[in-house]
Structure prediction request, 71 residues.
Amino acid sequence: MDQAVIKDVLEGQRVIENKLQDRYQAILASSDIFSKLNDADKSTVEEILKTLLNDAKKQSEIVNDYLHKYA
Prediction:
């Protein structure tokens, strides 16, 4: 596999992870959205955001492992 492709894929994964992390922090910090939710809804939103972020991190790890194994 071409090193430039590997570099691009890894950078893309980092961008996705960083954007999700930024959105996660922005939503939690947004008083307009988050403060209007009741505690149960806040908890649900937090869990969904954490799941999305963890999924992105797992995807990065899988891609990383694959690239190092087969590149």
About this structure: Residues 39-70 form the longest helix (32 residues). The chain has three helices and no strands. The chain has one domain: 3-70. The helical segments are 3-29, 31-34, 39-70.
